């Protein structure tokens, strides 16, 4: 699936080389499947995020919806013109769209070519925008259309079939051979916030927003970077991913989320360090994760890892508002829902009893 997404993006980039559509950056693997701890049931689904860069002469303005809290969790992405008068592309014969030269200065033929390019850029971007705002559904549909166009030149095309499952907020494909589905892959799109590891994504893990002009903040890139950082510091056979794989399997059908357990593991890795996560430490580390989670559920408080965390590794780049924010309690809802809290405590006790057998 990783190779499939890579070749899809590569071939679509080639196809759009002379266009003014957003530039597709290399895909970033997300979630448990790319980290080696997927639940061992059903057809594996590999999720990846494809970052979008603005085309030449344009810029993405991220406009926060402050009603969603601080830091903002919902953004609109406005596509605007950017001055390129002093860029290398200007030297290569691509004049600035924002400050176009006079026709007398350029010459009639060069000016005609410039107008064609400017009109093409406007036409291409309007395919993905509504009132100059990047639209999630249009972006997803545009990528699906390009997948349809390049599917026959993929390396996998000679041996496997590819099915496009149309969706509003992500691109989902099934790869199979004969009657068997081998793997499914899900692609979401992201726009980087400044130069940080935080992105605006086309889909959230919960219910997507009603308006397709809304893009949701995701820490998935920062999370992937965190686990890569810990892998470099950890022992050769570090068991933190094995622990997560075990919990991902055990939590199937439970109200307890693997995201909460993953947050616990990230907190433990930063506070105690990865040196104590060798293969022989699997059982004590699993117990430690359970104890930490039990305390968090009792207190109805589990802090978000990337907000207001003073123990953040220095190579994780966060926006200033994330660094200065007050910690965000992921279990805040349990303080207002006694039934949900009682169920979570019961399920955790049952899980602990199962592990102690």
From TrEMBL:
Membrane topology note: Single-pass type I membrane protein
Keywords: Membrane, Signal, Transmembrane, Transmembrane helix
Primary residence: membrane
GO cellular component, one term: membrane
Mab-21-like HhH/H2TH-like domain mapped to chain residues: 251-312
UniProt keyword Transmembrane helix present: yes
Keyword Transmembrane: yes
Family matches, as InterPro entries: ITPRIP-like, Mab-21_HhH/H2TH-like, MAB21L/cGLR
Subcellular location: Membrane
SMART domains: Mab-21 (SM01265)
Domain of life: Eukaryota
Similarity annotation: Belongs to the ITPRIP family.
Protein name: IPIL1 protein
Source organism (scientific name): Ceuthmochares aereus
Lineage: Eukaryota, Metazoa, Chordata, Craniata, Vertebrata
